[in-house]
Queue: 3 jobs
Job 1
Amino acid sequence: MQYLIGIDIGTSATKTVLFDEDCRVIASASEEYPLYQPQNGWAEQHPEDWKHAVLATLTTVLKKSRVQGSDVKGIGLSGQMHGLVMLDENNEVIRPAIIWCDQRTGKECDEIYERVGRERLIQITANPALTGFTASKILWVRNNEPENYARCKHILLPKDYIRFVLTGVFATDVSDASGMQLLDVPKRQWSEEILQKLDIDPALLAKVYESPEITGEVLPEVAAQTGLAAGTPVVGGAADNAAAAVGTGIVTDGRAFTTIGTSGVVYAHTSKVSIDPKGRVHTFCCAVPGCWLVLGCTLAAGLSLSWFRDNFCQNEVGTAKGMGVGAYYLMDQEAKNVPIGANRLLYLPYLMGERSPLLDPDARGAFIGLSGIHTKRDMLRAVMEGVTYSLRDCYEVLKEMGVHIDEMMACGGGGTSPLWRQMLADVYNCQVNTVQSEGPALGVAILAGVGAGMFPSVPEACARFLGKDKTCEPIAENVPQYEHFYKIYNKLYGDLKDSFHLLAE
């Protein structure tokens, strides 16, 4: 029997999954790590935490399964996008990684526009200058920590730091590189023009590969530590959303998914480059060679619910532990008993600023309509609905761009909630399906299988191994109710925008 491993280096945890040659789960392990916010709007993590989690979970899955390392034919890496990892001449980490949801780089985004021009930037990178992207983080370190920038010899994304740990190779893939704002997305290569105008040395950047291409092999010292075989190939892999697309079968035109993880994403596959000239949603290279993706990203989707849980639902956490269920299960049951519209209470999920389609790092979360009649349950329901409305905002932009969507899948932690899936179906007014999938980990395992020659292509592998699991149809009487509240929600940002900016000042 041959095996594949998919590793997903997420924001809250790393998950490593061992699959057999039919992409069935044999063993899995995960390990959590913290996120640090040294100042309001900042977000950092320690790459050493990712390293420890990956090596530990690799060791665990091989021990649990008793699979011989020599039978593992390929490894795929997925990870959170946009994070900045800087290494010195000794390949040591210089400073904590500035990750995707960090919002400190507003001035640097202005600098990028001054150096490149907004229209030209979107033409080349398919995206506007954004605080969460890597290029502005690089400039921030150069402007604010010149001593660290002077020491920097290598710039890597989170999953590509793990690739270096495993293989000693500096490499990235086209999907993850697309989120750095340094790649010519239509041409699928580093942009000489952008690098020159931003005065960034190309030698700092890793070599770019297509996602199923082999980039390196497992080092002997890593093999000795984990149980893998030295020389096991590691493929390019993919950014988390591109990997999730493969893991849910979104690899052909007309297919899309919504994921509710820490952030929320509406993602559609396309075989042609489609760029929003207003820059409200992102166009990246996808994990299928020669194809692209269009996605809208709301920054605090599952993050909004976990924030609410941590601050207001400790009773539910304790009760759930005693019952042997998750806290989110009990929270679902409570929210289900509140009517649509949460008794006229709305929530704006802008805890970390907002990306699609607002592009406003100063936007902040808010409950609107709060009164003496409202309870914690109402607020909980409002949080779930507000996140759903923010995803609808992204969905509307994709439709406006002419991106055709025949089928919508749901994935991520929020996709496991029957209540949240029904909200999506009702708010989108379309069928929402799920697949039995390990998401990004399965996606990059499939990519590893293609790279190792086990599968002929990404679309063929997905067609062979992935099928629908659950189907959720919109409830006819719910659709107009949600539509009414969505229209009010859609108006609120414009009403509050100036106040958000005054608060930021």
Job 2
Amino acid sequence: MPNPFHLAVQVRDIEEARGFYGKLLGCAEGRSSDSWVDFDLYGHQFVCHLNPDLGSASDNLHRNAVDGHGVPVPHFGVVLDMPAWEALVDRLTRAGVRFEIEPYIRFRGEPGEQATMFFLDPSGNALEFKAFRDIEGQLFAT
């Protein structure tokens, strides 16, 4: 198994995070307490820590121009294979998730061509999920 990353973010409500990450994204839940919960985010340890004073969704987002879109920064996510990415797009679309950047192919015909999408969790954390037809050959292509 490759080295999994560990990422901790703030959320305004633990039950809301459980609904989003557990039910919508399908992340299995690990350890938890009243103030934090671990999720298995595609094999990575992802932790939501309660901050009931967290501001609105757009308070801490900066946007950086990439391929003609305003990419929200900071953001995090996972690189998936194309079938898993397409299945996630379908699940999110059916659930009525509002995309910050609609699913599309970025850098079409160039090195690093990738499928990508951006959306926010209920606490305003920005997520990007992307996919490549050939992850090993395209992930760091220049």
Job 3
Amino acid sequence: MSIPAEGDIVDVLRHQHEELKQTMTEVETSTGLARAEAFGRVIALLETHERSEQRVVHPTTRETPGGAEIAEERVAEEEEADEVLAELRELGTDDPDFPARFTVFRESVIEHAQHEEDEEFPVLRATLPADQLLGMADELRAVQART
């Protein structure tokens, strides 16, 4: 997962959402070994991204006015995605059902990212000072560099 050197936490996460979307498109448009490799990258991207959000972003969101419910909804979506991802891993990219099931998964991940961008990120930007948002980006970079 690329970690932009510039920007606050929202900028970094939006960049990573775009990277994830592009990689999921690779899974959908490829076959054979190329699909398997792209799917492996999706797994790694999601694991790194979600783990670091759960350590850095969601706890801070919970502390903002009205943020507890937003954070809990995002965590629930991430847990659901983890379950579907495990099913896809078990199914394997060569299974005839994989493309259709992956497409449904991709749509749910994109919807989750949109919820973050529409609900969680505006709360962070509206309630936290710029230096804290920049510090969160640095903390996220550190967490992701260790994984």
